[in-house]
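Quick question, first post here. What does this chain look like in 3D?
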Amino acid sequence: MGTVGQPLRRSILTGGLVATVAALSSCSSKTDSTKTENAANADAAKTSSPSASTQGSSSADRPDSPWAAFARLMDGNRRWVDGKLLHPDRDPSQRQFVAEEQDPYGVILSCIDSRVPPELLFDTGLGDLFVMRTGGQVVGPVVTGSVEYGPMTSGTPLIVVLGHQRCGAVKAAYKALKDNKPLPGNLQAIAEALRPAYEQTEKTKHADPVDAMIRIHTKQTSADLRSNADLAPLVKKGDLAVVSAYYSLDTGRVEVLTGAPSA
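> Answer (accepted):
Ran it through. Tokens below.
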């Protein structure tokens, strides 16, 4: 993708970018009449359902600033920790509301670990988040492009790079790199992507070097995205925040490491 001179909102997507987005995804914007009809149908469904009226959302409810999106996610994580989940936006009316198009307020780049499902630990629902999951939340061109998709095409205001406690991918990479014994198959590609974090970790003694490497890698990845040629202009204008965070398997709590936006 080319360098962005200003935030690309859905209202100004034209020409080649529209064609590119259409080719990448079937979730392109529809006509105004379709959107109006879809929203009206969803509103009608929510009105007829008491639970949906308290849980459903609309485009007007979508956080449109980095701080608002960040606050929404952290509120959801507090509910997860406290066991007071709302399970928002998970009813048939929400499914109908987002069927024609989507407008997520956050991008989450996290690990494939089965114990770290972003939609659950942030207590979010259908249409709220773009989620990318890779081993050790490592990135490459395709993953970076996927992260860029929301901010560059629809103004998604928040990216969260989420590392987590006892990450098996980082543990395996740490041992492979330290012992100079490559991992089998394409797993070694994950270890190589984690090499910068490993090298930084080895510069200082740590009580738990694997946990330190998890945190270092998460911060490095968010810093790289924050300075990305296409995302940096959005960050500079205050339209986008890139946050690094760490999830505790023991407590369920998300700890912010770097990049938390201000109100």
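The beta strands are 106-111, 129-134, 158-164, 241-247, 254-258.
The CA atoms of residues 172 and 253 lie 24 Å apart.
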